[in-house]
Amino acid sequence: MKEKHFVYILLTENDTLYCGYTDDVNKRFQAHVEGKGAKYTKANKPIKIVWQKEFCTKSEALKEEYRIKHKLTRKQKLELINSV
Q1: Is 30 left (phi over 0), alpha (psi -120 to 50) or beta?
Q2: CATH code at 5-82
């Protein structure tokens, strides 16, 4: 079975965006909701998945996660979300 690699963006209760990588978006979102996903989402409760994209390799996905987290402004992230 072919591995799946996703980058996703969550919207939190206090209107912030969280970006992450996973091989199962719904399972990872549930972990975030339960406070087990990441330190950030423990303090900033996620409301919904607002963007996700599948990649062929883990390397490609992690590069995109890094780009979104560290290179894009909030405005650019919102443009990415709204471009779907």
Answers
A1: alpha
A2: 3.40.1440.10
Q: 3-class SS at 13?
A: coil
In DSSP terms, which residues pair with 20 in a beta bridge?
A: 8
Residue 2 has pLDDT above 90, yes or no: no
Is residue 56 over pLDDT 80? yes
What's the CA angle centered on 47, arms 84 and 58, to 5 degrees? 55
Q: Is 2 in a helix, a strand, or coil? A: coil
- pTM (predicted TM-score): 0.95
Tokens of 5: 């690699």
CA distance 51 to 82: 9
- Edge-to-edge strand list for the sheet holding 46-55: 17-22, 5-12, 46-55
